[in-house]
Design a protein that fits this description.
The protein is built from 14 helices and 16 strands. By secondary structure, the protein is α/β, with parallel strands linked by helices. The protein has a domain of 229 residues: Vaccinia Virus protein VP39 (Rossmann fold). The strands form three sheets. Strands 2, 3, 4, 5, 10, 14, 15 and 16 form an eight-stranded mixed beta sheet that branches. Strands 1, 6, 7, 8 and 9 form a five-stranded antiparallel beta sheet that branches.
């Protein structure tokens, strides 16, 4: 058992089994041993690759989306451009390169990166060297102004609670020590939880036995906060992540290490933990806060509507055969249903006046 595992085990011995959310939050965010506080997880030398690292087109098209949305907002002379969980800074760098085609917007926006990891902040500073950027720990620290917000693969890393349906009702899934105390195992709380106490975004009455529901309190709170901000100050947020449009009744929590599957309860802090995003729940939370939502739609459909084919053709001009092959491979990975095109979804949270945003269907 590693150092973080021993710390978690000591807490369980003292107070009993812990929730999946508590374990996940410690594994990812422990100040000393957490996965995101001490590692550079993204890239071939890390544990996984995100879309901005797959193709420059990803960030470029999101940058153009922001520019078009700024125009629809009435070209505010001051706005904040925010990225939540900016990874290595690649998305923002590519987005700003595309935004350079709209100098008035570049002059209007202040760039804020919401990042808690000191390690990743250092990487972002290097990627965005020479660009005026402000870092903050939470969205609440960003000045209150018309908002353009990007969040790519952020919500999947927020801690989830799990509930399992048994003969006597719903029971929270907890994490306890194995019999020998050398590892961790899943157990169920002996006390049933009423559906009203689960925080589930929709009714799960009638779910089959052994069904598992994952609830992400932090994600719902963040979607509500974004909704409140855009409803009050104007603007829009674009969330890109993998998940489903509706609440699912099975476990999606997974661990990834060195680009492969890893046991969820092994070596906490040494592997990425993530769960599929419930986009329907996020949209409902944002609407309750006074915003409108557009989508979610599949990532491949979204980028097709934004003109990924045309951008690919433009980039291929003058490229070497090897560069063209890499460009085509990256674009295909973003859009093909068998790769990222279907599993990944796009959701916008916007001020009620912004009913026509690029690439997205009008709100219902």
């Amino acid at each position: 058992m590693n150092a973080l595992g021993r710390r978690i085990a000591a807490a369980i011995r003292q107070a009993g089994p812990i929730s999946v959310a508590t374990y996940m939050a410690a594994a990812l965010g422990d100040p000393e041993h957490g996965y995101y506080t001490r590692r550079q997880p993204i890239g071939l030398s890390g544990d996984f690759i995100t879309a901005p690292e797959v193709s420059q087109i990803f960030g470029e098209l999101l940058g153009l989306w922001c520019a078009a949305t700024w125009e629809l907002m009435g070209r505010p002379p001051r706005a904040v451009l925010v990225e939540l969980g900016p990874g290595r800074g690649t998305l923002m760098a590519d987005a700003l390169r595309a935004m350079a085609a709209v100098p008035a917007m570049c002059a209007a926006v202040e760039i804020h990166l919401v990042e808690t990891s000191p390690t990743l902040r250092a990487v972002q500073a290097e990627t965005l060297r020479g660009i005026p950027v402000r870092w903050c720990e939470r969205l609440a620290e960003v000045p209150d102004a018309p908002l353009l917000l990007l969040a790519n693969e952020l919500f999947d890393a927020l801690a989830v609670r799990q509930f399992q349906r048994g003969l006597t009702g719903w029971h929270e899934r907890l994490i306890a020590l194995t019999a020998d105390g050398a590892g961790f195992r899943f157990v169920l709380s002996p006390l049933a939880v009423p559906e009203s106490g689960m925080g589930a975004p929709v009714s799960v009455a009638g779910a089959p036995l052994q069904s598992i529901v994952e609830v992400c309190p932090g994600g719902l709170a963040l979607a509500q906060e974004i909704g409140e901000r855009v409803a009050r100050a104007g603007g829009a947020a674009l969330i890109v992540d993998y998940g489903t449009a509706t609440t699912r009744l099975h476990e999606t929590l997974q661990a990834v290490r060195r680009h492969g599957s890893h046991p969820v309860l092994a070596a906490p802090g040494e592997a990425d933990l993530a769960a599929h995003v419930d986009f329907g729940a996020l949209a409902a939370a944002a609407r309750r806060a006074g915003a409108i939502t557009l989508g979610p739609i599949e990532q491949g459909v979204f980028f097709g509507a934004l003109g990924i084919a045309e951008r690919l053709t433009a980039l291929e001009r003058g490229a070497t055969p090897a560069q063209r092959a890499a460009l085509r491979s990256g674009a295909a990975r973003l859009t093909d249903p068998g790769q990222m095109g279907s599993l990944f979804k796009v959701l916008a949270i916007a001020h009620p006046a912004l009913t026509d945003l690029p690439g997205l269907p009008r709100p219902c």
